[in-house]
Amino acid sequence: MTVTDTSRGTGTAATSTTHRRHAFALLGSVRITLIFTLAALAVPLPEIGRAFGLERADLILLSTAYGLTFAGLLLFGARLSDRYGGRRALTAGLIVFAAALNLRVQRPRPSRPSRTSSLPQGAMQ
Hints:
Elements lengths: L6 H36 L2 H8 L3 H29 L1 H21 L19
């Protein structure tokens, strides 16, 4: 007479389905983030083109380069997360971001004329 343990079989199938749903939701949110960042780039793109003298084909290439760089760095971050753990990778990323932000804040700003100095005399009254 053999005894089979059925308690293990039901738990792993439910857990596997739950993990798949969470992974699918995560992949969907990453894809939406990528689409929104590319859409956010489209807003200042005409001004960037005017500032640098770029044609329409160059702006499309710029947008594609931004998307590929973003996706590549996203994959690199996922690889770091797989290798070192999500919490460590996030902490390291936040430290690098804070350090870069700190360097940017400490950098002296070039002097620019104030907006009010270019307005006509009666405009500020």
